[in-house]
Design goal:
This protein is α/β, with parallel strands linked by helices. It folds into two domains: about 110 residues, Enolase-like, N-terminal domain (Enolase-like, domain 1, 2-Layer Sandwich), CATH 3.30.390.10; about 230 residues, Alpha-Beta Barrel (TIM Barrel), CATH 3.20.20.120. The protein has 14 helices and 13 strands. The strands form two sheets. Strands 4, 5, 6, 7, 8, 9, 10, 11 and 12 form a nine-stranded mixed β-sheet that branches. Strands 3-2-1-13 form a four-stranded antiparallel β-sheet. α7 crosses α8, α8 runs parallel beside α9 and α10 packs parallel to α11.
Amino acid sequence: MSTVSVKRARLQSIIAAQAAVTAGPELQIVSLEAWNLREPDNGRAWSLIRLATREGIEGWGEARPLTSDAVGRLRSLSLKTPASAYEDLRRKLAGQEGAAAVNIAALDILGKAAKAPVYQVLGGPTRNMVRAYTALHGADDAALVKDMERCRAAGHKAFGVPVALPPFRNSGKAFVNASRARMDALLQSASEDCDFILQGQARLTPGDAASLASAFERTHLLWFDEPCSTSAIGALRKLAEENVTPLGFGLDVADAAHFQNLLRDDSIDVLRPELALHGISGIRKIAALAETYYVAVAPRHNQGPVNTAATLHLAASLPNFFIQHIPFPAESARAEMRAALTGGSVERVKDGYAALSNTPGLGVTVNRQAVSKYGEAIA
């Protein structure tokens, strides 16, 4: 181990010891429950975690699906820790599956104990409402246009558009023309105040990504999301240098240092850290790093309505926040599930913006009956 590593380890142990001495019994976590929830129509799943304190205050958070072993580790590391020591808890849980959900739930508890919204606990709001977008879904261009019209009627003005995946690698002109046709169809049906994000899902080659980035320079996309994998930073640097279209990355990036590498190489315009991986505290640290490079942050979120509420508090606390994805399912069964879990108002969008809650904590009340209906308890 290097001298620097030894010094860091010694410093961390001192900080942890000081936290243990100063933390009192108030808001001590005494129970941790978890469920895996599954959407009724497509089987997509996520986990829901509930923390409870000695005083009877509960907090909720969501993460990717968890196993019983992962939940057991979270319990052993979280119990008897004060929710107010959420930063100490974040360090204890570093690298553990579900750590993000515990971080969100601890902040929910802290806000309820302080009788203040989470964004006030984090230092007060930087904005009064949160700009939102939603991802479009459809098997073809016509279906995407229809879904956009449905979302517009519900108050959305910004949309994520999936790339028409090429039939083979480096497909060339035919692939570019098909992508242009899809976007043209959406632009013709949209109003002038609508914005678009092209979603590559990290499934394109750098060559195909470069072709599309160049083709859409005059379309003024908000950004090109995950055009390709971030594994080859040299290719990303070349892509960023040769095109005007902004680039956004963050899919499956669990290490904040990887974001730092992208920022240092000037290869990213919009950071997309995932809430279910980093939690509120982790993304705030990543956002602070991005702010020094004048880069905006658009947190990635694709779980349930509890994390939707968490993203709004997070967005309100970030000076360099850009826009937030809020799921808006077309299928009635999925919409009913999300509404049943928290009451439905948290994911409401008006004129392209979501409102901030003034209710303590995350501002949502989780329906335990709905959790039992749609979820399976994790022992």
